[in-house]
Amino acid sequence: MTQEPTLAEDPEAYWNEQAGPIWVSHQEDLDRLLTPVAERLLAAAAPQAGEHVIDVGCGCGATTLRLAECVGAGGRVVGVDLSRPMLARAAERAAGMSQVALHASDAATHSFEAGDADLVLSRFGVMFFADPSSAFSNLRRALRSTGRLCFVAWQASEKNAWATTPLRALPELLVPDPAPEGAPGPFSLADPARVRTLLDAAGFTQVRLESIEGSMPVGDTPEAALRFFCQVGPLSRHIATLEEADRNASVERVRRYLSDGWGTDAVSFDSAYWLVRASAA
Ligand SMILES: C[S@@+](CC[C@H](N)C(=O)[O-])C[C@H]1O[C@@H](n2cnc3c(N)ncnc32)[C@H](O)[C@@H]1O
In what order do the strands lie in the sheet with 143-154? Predict the structure, then answer.
């Protein structure tokens, strides 16, 4: 086994040294994959010209840039992220947009200006807080009383075949996840009751969750899907811990599994996420 930083043990190192560089190298593919999610989120959040928006876990800046267009030069978009490589990519893309400010910081504890923001938005960036209760309280404090929260978070992994299917090729990895339910990770906000409890406790009102289910096109061929899975998501996290020979053997097994199941056509998987909306007061 190799010693890659893990999300559970050292999230800052994980997002800076492990996942961040991968997200940067796949930025265009990931943005293409997740554009429909961004557009759905923006339609629900309806950012207006002149508004002040916080983009939590803004990553390489896809939603930050779209928000900047929506609020215009008279508005403000503050992107906050733990990952310096991802923020560097966001900064390159936002060059010349004076309404964008980016901070390398933990959004759970960042000192936002209190009561100043109109909107806190996040595309899959709020599921990684070690203490989500205090993190959501911190985000609510940043909002003015008329402000709103709008984010997306994955539903249970069983409803997200993109996360589970490649692992089925390696059944020995399908041992029960030792992390306690709700531990930081992509599926930590899968339980709608938990989302409501956390947001209610943080002082949000009118909490609404909308289920968005569909199909996610992961690759034009099984080979492209395999390359993607080896870099991003649960399979990549598992194989990253293996020595090279074991890793190659595992990838080969997933390759055979994907090709057997899908022939040579484009590969899409079921996906499901929550679109969550709440008011600050
Ligand atoms: C799944 S990625 C999503 C990135 C981006 N929102 C997008 O949709 O492309 C999760 C992002 O959240 C960031 N993140 C994780 N925990 C964070 C925290 N406590 N504070 C700020 N950012 C965090 C990661 O660095 C990463 O950029």
Answer: 100-104, 76-81, 52-56, 117-123, 143-154, 267-279, 205-219
Average pLDDT of the segment spanning 57-86: 98
Domain ranges, ordered by start, for the chain: 11-155+181-215+271-279
Kindly give, in sequence order, each residue whose CB lies less than 8 Å from that of residue 264, ignoring residues fewer than 6 positions away: 221, 222
* Structure token pair of residue 113: 């200006």
State the chain's mean pLDDT as an integer.
Answer: 92
- Ligand 1: atom nearest CA of 122 is 6
Distance CA 188, CA 195 (A): 9
Residue pLDDT, tens place only, 231-258:
888 788 788 888 999 999 999 998 888 7
Where do we find the tokens 């009102």? 205
Ligand 1, pocket residues at CB < 6 Å: 11, 15, 34, 57-60, 62, 80-83, 86, 106-108, 123-125, 128-129
Q: Is 217 exposed, middle or buried (0-12, 13-18, 19+ CB in 10 A)?
A: middle
Task: Give the residue, by CA position, lying nearest to ligand 1 atom 4.
Answer: 59
Q: Give the CATH class of 11-155+181-215+271-279.
A: alpha beta
**Tokens at 80, concatenated:** 């906050």
**Residue 263 Cα, ligand 1 centroid: separation in angstroms?**
34
Beta-carbon contacts of 228 under 8 Å, excluding residues fewer than 6 positions away, are 26, 29, 218, 219
- At 262, the pLDDT band (50, 70, 90 cuts) reads low
Q: How confident is the model at residue 177 (pLDDT cuts 50, 70, 90)?
A: low
